[in-house]
Design brief:
Number of helices: 4
Helix content: under 10%
Largest sheet: 7 strands, mixed
Strand order of the largest sheet: 17-16-20-22-23-24-27
Length: 626
């Protein structure tokens, strides 16, 4: 992505800155591919990640990656000198754009003819460009470098396609392996800069500027209404997080917007007659492949452009003929129809859903961010990023304008306020509603970075006991308790615990937690003490019957249950006999099948307040009837 936002860059220099495959691929495959990559696949994914198009350096990646590598120092050569090994003597300022995250990463000035050591993210893509701010600091120009950071090296993305074509020319019958692919990337060892007259300004992408004559038409965008080019004078608006550009259709129904390269613009119109289904459009410079400049839908990577005009040589009649069905015009709709095909998009985690447009192939990610919010003092809160990603290019897809409804889990807590953090780091309050463990609010752009859920101090605590069932042993039982609410675990100083009395005999007992300090809330849970069990001592076989003998259990026991079955796992042919006196030591079981093997086990029970409490089952014994 190439652009010069003069004010922002100047501020950053002074230290004041804020720092073509068709759509037949189903969404399930896209999501599965992204999941595989985020869990760790090969770079090219030959065996694990489906490839959806032929863009060089096709990569999927985790846009939340924090894997940093150090590169440099890097020589900056003076291209005006006879010997290319001559480093520059003057200061040259580089802007390093992180095209994976779609933002300026850093602005760096050479020192002693070198770029100082850089900290970059492994497997991310960057654009290196020389900043000419019109001052004495830099009067240099350089062709922009499109770089992939891999294995701690800077690889030239745009060397890949040519080198691969050359390799195939000499190895027509050989398989293109990942090793071959990697060898097709030139490693960048240094940069060469020239006087600023050397190159033309390509920061803004004029459809008919710097393009080969035969490909200039690729930059024109037809605007259609009901299958035909619209008339002259319809205003089309392109809105990015950097600027808003307007362009009116000409007599042929085309617009010629001058856009920053690789910046996502949302397409709309203010014409009272029409609507446009919103989508992100991006300009791309492919002149190094003799493909000129063109536009594409960043949610699908499909081309957006013209329908080719074909003139009949005999009649002179002009007709519109699609040369490639992936090359689509901007389509005007009747007023009120822009959101007719909207569908909700759910994040891979399942925690967040957004609505507000037809998201097509866009993937939604969310993550929790560890960030202090001093304005919220001691309140509990959750900071999260909600990120839209283009899965074809493995980079963030910015939707700079719209009305997006976000529904997110409240993560087990009551939410008092929802905020977004603006570009200045200030909290901006959002209207929201909360229902059934979900929070719903609106944002006017995606990704919705740094959304803050401020939690209430009124807690509905979730209690976890160290044990919820004990076996009677004549001693008082006192399970320890852990207290959570959503993602927060509370310390012992933040709550008080009260146990019900007794807790020695068979029965049910309560544990009550009352929050204290800045928290309020109360919760009670129970645990049980069950009777001590017994065991089958002997099985005596008889004719179609058996006798079960066990050891009597006299303390805290009301009676026994004997279970028998023809299945060792007690899955079928299973019956239970109840013995109501704890003094009884045996039971005859009759009406059984002759010469059949039976499996037997026993448990005790105790009735307290009309509720029966059972011991565990004993070990199984077996006997075969006569």
């Amino acid at each position: 992505m190439i652009f010069e936002i003069r004010k922002e860059m100047d501020e950053m220099i002074r230290g004041e800155g804020k720092g073509f495959k068709r759509r037949s691929v189903c969404r399930i495959a896209v999501l599965a591919a992204l999941l595989v990559v985020m869990l760790g696949s090969t770079v090219f994914g030959a065996s694990t990640v489906k490839k959806y198009h032929d863009i060089p350096a096709y990569q999927m990646r985790d846009v939340y990656s924090q894997k940093q590598v150090k590169i440099g120092p890097i020589d900056v050569r003076d291209g005006e000198k006879l010997y290319s090994e001559s480093n520059v003597k003057d200061d040259v300022t580089f802007t390093i754009y992180n095209s994976t995250l779609q933002k300026i990463d850093q602005v760096v000035t050479t020192k002693d003819g070198k770029l100082p050591e850089l900290t970059l993210t492994e497997d991310f893509n960057y654009i290196f460009m020389v900043l000419d701010n019109g001052s004495e600091r830099s009067k240099r120009r350089m062709n922009n470098f499109y770089i992939w950071i891999h294995d701690g090296k800077m690889l030239n993305i745009k060397s890949y396609e040519k080198n691969l074509a050359d390799w195939k020319k000499y190895h027509p019958d050989d398989e293109v392996t990942n090793r071959v692919r990697m060898s097709c990337y030139d490693v960048i060892q240094n940069f060469k800069v020239y006087n600023k007259e050397f190159d033309q300004d390509t920061s803004r992408l004029d459809a008919n500027k710097n393009a080969p004559q035969e490909t200039k038409e690729l930059g024109n965008i037809f605007v259609y209404y009901k299958g035909k080019p619209v008339g002259e004078g319809v205003n089309i608006i392109f809105t990015s997080d950097r600027e808003t550009v307007e362009a009116k259709t000409d007599v042929n129904g085309k617009v010629h917007p001058v856009l920053l390269e690789d910046v996502n613009y949302m397409v709309s119109t203010d014409d009272s007659r029409y609507d446009i289904e919103p989508f992100p459009i991006a300009a791309k410079d492919k002149s190094e492949y003799d493909a000129g400049r063109y536009f594409y839908d960043h949610s699908t990577c499909h081309r957006v452009g013209l329908r080719y005009e074909v003139r009949d040589p005999k009649t002179g009649e002009v007709r519109i003929e699609p040369k490639d069905d992936a090359l689509n015009p901007i389509v005007l709709l009747d007023k009120g129809q822009a959101h007719k095909h909207d569908k909700p998009l759910t994040s891979l985690s399942g925690n967040v859903t957004v609505e507000g447009m037809q998201f097509k192939d866009i993937v939604l990610l969310d993550r929790k961010v560890n960030r202090d919010i001093p304005e919220l003092g001691e309140k509990d809160y959750r900071v999260m990023d909600i990120t839209t990603v283009n899965p074809h290019r493995g980079e963030i897809c910015k939707l700079a304008s719209g009305d997006f409804t976000v529904t997110t889990s409240s993560f087990g807590r009551t939410v008092d306020n929802v905020y977004r953090i603006d570009a200045n780091g200030a909290l901006q309050e959002c209207d929201f509603e909360q229902k059934n463990g979900k929070v719903r609010f609106h944002v006017n752009a995606l990704p919705a970075e740094s959304v803050v859920l401020e939690y209430s101090n009124e807690i509905n605590p979730v209690l976890k006991l160290s044990a919820t069932a004990y076996t009677y042993n004549g001693k008082v039982r006192k399970p320890s308790v852990a207290v959570k609410a959503g993602e927060k675990t509370f310390s012992a100083s933040e709550f008080a615990v009260k146990y019900s009395g007794g807790r020695k005999n068979v029965g049910k007992y309560s544990v009550t937690v009352t929050m204290k300090g800045k928290y309020t809330g109360k919760k009670t849970v129970t645990f049980r003490i069950n009777p001590k069990g017994t065991a089958v001592q002997k099985l005596t076989k008889g004719r179609k019957q058996m006798k079960v003998t066990w050891k009597a259990q006299k303390t805290q026991v009301s009676g026994y249950r004997i279970q028998y079955s023809t299945s060792s796992k007690f899955k079928k042919g299973t019956h239970i006999k109840t013995v109501k006196s704890y003094k009884t030591k045996s039971l005859k079981v009759k009406k059984l099948k002759a010469k059949k093997k039976y499996y037997v086990r026993i448990q005790t029970y105790k009735t307290v307040g009309g509720i029966k409490y059972y011991s565990g089952w004993s070990k199984t014994k077996s006997v075969k009837t006569k």
